[in-house]
Design a protein that fits this description.
- The chain has about 425 residues and is an alpha+beta fold.
- The chain has helices at about 20-35, 45-60, 70-80, 100-110, 145-155, 170-185, 215-230, 250-260, 295-305, 325-335, 370-375, 400-405, and strands at about 1-5, 10-15, 60-65, 85-90, 110-115, 125-130, 135-140, 160-165, 190-195, 195-200, 235-240, 260-265, 275-280, 285-290, 310-315, 340-345, 350, 385-390, 410-415.
- The protein has 2 domains: about 1-20 and about 215-415, Enolpyruvate transferase domain (UDP-n-acetylglucosamine1-carboxyvinyl-transferase, Chain, Alpha-beta prism); about 20-200, Enolpyruvate transferase domain (UDP-n-acetylglucosamine1-carboxyvinyl-transferase, Chain).
- It is about 30% helix and about 20% strand.
- The strands form 5 sheets. A 4-stranded mixed β-sheet has the order 2-11-13-12. Strands 3-4-6-5 form a 4-stranded mixed β-sheet, with helices on one face. It has a 4-stranded mixed β-sheet with strand order 7-8-10-9.
- α1 crosses α6, α4 packs parallel to α5 and α7 runs parallel beside α9.
- The structure holds shikimate-3-phosphate and phosphoenolpyruvate.
- Phosphoenolpyruvate binds near residues 68 and 69.
- GO terms for molecular function: 3-phosphoshikimate 1-carboxyvinyltransferase activity.
């Protein structure tokens, strides 16, 4: 399927963002470890959360986690520490996303895990059993999801867990989000040194009423829409977010303030409406390190090209092992609309304003929800923008296209 997208002149609407898949997936695994039987409410209906809901509910012999990285990593640690025999697998892409750092760490904690196909990658055969726990070192520079997965089982390990992280820590705000979620469920989980996290062997508490904030990563596409619409009469309200959030991607508020989008929360101390308004952007260039917020990179890269803001973005090394190689995907698809960006050292993207003749071919999405959502706002600049396989958005934001229609986008299916 291919969508043809036409953007509205002006936006005056309210959007209810989906629940944060990162918080949902943490809460679900912790909730299961706490032995809670009642379901969690207000979960996201995105694919990445639904695969965990189904896995925990049915616990089939073979668990297919599809394309969900967090689900693959969190469920691997959960299954390794919970009695039972399971194979965990996923999409072809998932079978090429590395998992050796997590498997090695779990084996050092006593886990029984075998690779079913390729050494270092899913699928995995796991014989779950109570694990002793203790002190281990883990590389922190490849994916924070390995660290989060280990931390979440910490309270149920006989000796608890002391995790020393080595190397530069990638996606660190997600580790803090894990610790915060664990503490909400009664865990004693904290940084005890600059590179060390300690989890006490103390069971999780059963929590009945748990509110899940909306997804700040999803809000980024609305910030981009407001920036590219650049109409002073437009105003957009986003519901479900909090100014005192623990989601690292809330830094989007700051980044887009530099690109002319003003954010105004009705209340500061809890979930409250957030109003966005666009002002003129006069920024000539933006340099930013995305080590802590990799999921925002595509949004900001596309927005800056469309706004003529030159950039040098660092901290992008982990983009190569996500839903697709996002560095290559960005370079290739931006050329179709006339922007020539280049990469350096496998972790940097640079744009000095170089352009090429646009081909106006449809944008390919590479089974990556964020490619579709980051490119859609380009419809403000390129009328009749086309996006291939728009259905990829279900990974994190199933009603993205309906929400776009509700604010005035005209979206038609190409015959
Ligand atoms: O823990 C999480 O919820 C996530 C961590 C990040 O992954 P990495 O730690 O692999 O960068 C992020 O990209 C992903 O979308 C969600
Ligand atoms: C990288 C992402 O997801 P995951 O790693 O959980 O598949 C993402 O949602 O951008």
């Amino acid at each position: 399927m291919t969508y043809i997208i036409q953007a509205p002149q002006q936006i005056n609407s309210t959007i209810q963002l989906p629940a944060s898949k990162s918080i949902c997936n943490r809460a679900l695994v912790i909730h299961a470890m706490a032995g809670c039987t009642f379901p969690l409410s207000h979960l996201s209906d995105c694919d990445d959360t639904e695969v965990i809901v189904a896995a925990l509910r049915d616990m089939p012999e073979t668990i297919n986690i599809k394309a969900a990285g967090t689900a693959m990593r969190f469920m691997t640690a959960y299954l390794a520490s919970t009695p039972g025999s399971h194979t965990i697998t996923g999409t072809e892409r998932m079978k090429n996303r590395p998992i050796a750092i997590l498997v090695d760490a779990l084996r050092r904690l006593g886990a029984d895990i075998e690779y079913v196909e390729k050494e270092g990658f899913p699928p995995l055969r796991i014989e779950g059993k109570p694990l002793e726990g203790g002190q281990i070192e883990v590389v922190g520079s490849i994916s924070s999801q390995y660290i989060s997965a280990l931390l979440m089982i910490g309270p149920v390990l006989q000796k608890g867990l002391e995790l020393k992280l080595t190397g530069e820590i990638a996606s660190r705000p997600y580790i803090d989000l894990t610790l915060w979620t664990m503490r909400q469920f009664g865990a004693d989980a904290k940084w005890t040194d600059i590179d060390t996290i300690t989890i006490a062997p103390q069971p999780y508490a059963k929590i009945e009423d748990y509110t899940i904030e909306s997804d700040w990563s999803a809000s980024s596409y609305w910030y981009e829409i407001m920036a590219l619409n650049a109409n002073r009469d437009s105003e957009l309200q986003l519901d479900g977010l909090s100014d005192c959030t623990k989601q690292g991607d809330s830094v989007v508020k700051y980044i887009f303030s530099l690109l002319g989008v003003k954010s105004d929360f009705e209340l500061r101390d809890r979930i409250a409406p957030l109003k966005l308004k666009a002002h003129r952007c006069t920024l000539p260039r933006l340099d930013y390190d995305f080590t802590g917020s990799p999921d925002l990179a595509q949004t900001i890269v596309v927005a800056c090209c469309a706004m003529g803001v030159h950039f040098r973005f660092t901290g992008l090394a982990t983009l190569k092992i996500k839903e697709t190689d996002r560095i290559e995907a960005l370079k290739r698809e931006l050329r179709k609309v006339g922007y020539v960006i280049r990469d350096e050292n496998d972790n940097t993207l640079i744009w000095e304003g170089e352009t090429c003749e646009p081909t106006h071919e449809p944008i390919d999405t590479y089974e990556d929800h964020r490619m579709a959502m980051a490119f859609a706002p380009l419809a403000f600049k390129f009328p009749q923008l086309q996006i291939n396989h728009p259905e990829v958005v279900t990974k994190s934001y199933p009603h993205f296209w309906e929400d776009l229609r509700s604010v005035g986008f005209i979206i038609t299916e190409k015959a």
